[in-house]
Amino acid sequence: MGPELVVLLGILGCGGTPMDQQIPINRGRGYTRAIDTLGVELTVTASAAKAWEVLAAVYTDLGLEINFREPAAVRLGSCFQKVRSRLGKKPLSTFVDCGDTNGLPNADRYEVAITVLTTVRPHPNGGASLFTFVQGVGLDGASSTNRRWCYSRGTLEERIRAGVAAKTES
Question: What CATH number is given to the structural domain containing 148?
Answer without folding.
Answer: 3.30.310
